Amino acid sequence: MQKKDLYKIVGKNIQKQRLIQGYTQETFAELMGVSWSYVSKIEAGILNLSLGKILEIADYLNIEVDLLLKTKN
């Protein structure tokens, strides 16, 4: 698996969990203190997130980090 594929998987997992929580990209961005375009880039798999940022996102979503890192549905 290439790095870009992994970025996209993590991004889709973040998007899925955000939607389960009922957040729009805009409201989730406000919660995190970032722009909606930053959230959009994360979910599109464009950004290479640090482990610290992934942990932070899991905290904002009040979920275990493994839900964001899993590669199989």
What's this entry about, in short?
This protein has five helices and no strands. By secondary structure, it is mainly alpha-helical.
List keywords for this structure.
single chain; 434 Repressor (Amino-terminal Domain); mainly alpha; 73 residues; 5 helices
% residues in beta strands = under 5%
Order of helices and strands: HHHHH
Determine the number of helices (DSSP H or I, runs of at least 4 residues): 5
Number of domains: 1
Rg measurement, Å: 11 Å
Distance between the termini: 16 Å
Number of DSSP strand runs? 0
Helix content: 55-70%
Instruction: Assign the CATH class.
Output: Mainly Alpha
Low-confidence stretches: none
Largest sheet: none
- CATH level 4 superfamily: lambda repressor-like DNA-binding domains
Annotated CATH architecture: Orthogonal Bundle
Mean of pLDDT: 95
- CATH fold call: 434 Repressor (Amino-terminal Domain)
Shape: globular
Structural class: mainly alpha
Task: Give a description of the structure.
With 73 residues, the protein is an all-alpha fold. It has one domain: lambda repressor-like DNA-binding domains (434 Repressor (Amino-terminal Domain)). Helices cover 68% and strands 0% of the residues. It is built from five helices and no strands. The chain is globular, with a radius of gyration of 11 Å. The protein starts with a helix and ends with a helix.
Task: Summarize the helices and strands and which ones pair or pack.
Blueprint (H helix, E strand, L loop, with lengths): L2 H19 L3 H8 L3 H8 L7 H11 L4 H4 L4
Helix pairs in contact: 2-3
